[in-house]
Amino acid sequence: MSQQERAGLTALSAVLSPLEGSGPKTEAVVQRLSAAISLGVMVDGQQLPSELTLADQLGVSTMTLREALAVLREQGIVRTKRGRGGGSFICSSAEALEHTASARLQQMSLAELRDLGDAQFAIAGAAAVFAARRGGRADIARLHALTDRLRTSTEPVAARRADSRFHIEMAVCAQSTRLTRAQVDLQAELSALIWLPRLELDPAAEASVHGDLVRAIEREDDAAARELAESQSESRIRRLVALRMELSDR
């Protein structure tokens, strides 16, 4: 199995892990499955696990899962085929994901965006610190590979996937299940927003920050790793808030 395939399995296991908390679960399931698609862990045409299996993996009832699948069908991200050989299949396109993300951004308040940014600031910083203290060679190799993938990305979808996977794998590198699950949830909410074309993120520039971050992790410099992760998170949320304010002025 290639290094890329191992990274995919790691990301998939993180995405399809049980949801935590006691709040509404339907939207959380929608975000998780959207994250799997956004990350490229689930691809166009792929069949989802059976409803019973998927509900068990996410720790929700089958009714909650069916409600989430109905939302994803309305968004054009999932299609369901009945009868023999049937099931639910990924049918997402870059255009559908972009449309959904743009609509969601316009519905969010500035307070919600800043709160989301605060969470990413905290989680990314903590993951960077513990990755520097605990990361192994294989973990760091995955981070290097994802940095290279981001640097050479020529399409927004590929760049978004490499970037999101990087942040999840950094939490994996920190050897913290809770940080990994928290980062998965954050990427489910943030990744499509951060990589909206109108934000004009430069994959090469973002990869340069990732490269500096991985080198700090390699030399076990947790302070530098934290500073880099927090600075990138802060910069991105500022740009996202500015775009949201621009849209509200129209």
UniProtKB/TrEMBL annotation:
CDD domains for this protein: WHTH_GntR
SUPFAM superfamilies, per database record: GntR ligand-binding domain-like, Winged helix' DNA-binding domain
Keywords on record: DNA-binding, Transcription, Transcription regulation
Pfam family, one: FCD
Limits of the HTH gntR-type domain: 23-93
SMART domains: FCD, HTH_GNTR
This protein's record includes keyword DNA-binding: yes
The keyword Membrane is annotated on this UniProt entry: no
Organism superkingdom: Bacteria
Entry-linked Gene3D superfamilies: GntR ligand-binding domain-like, Winged helix-like DNA-binding domain superfamily/Winged helix DNA-binding domain
Name listed for the protein in its UniProt record: GntR family transcriptional regulator
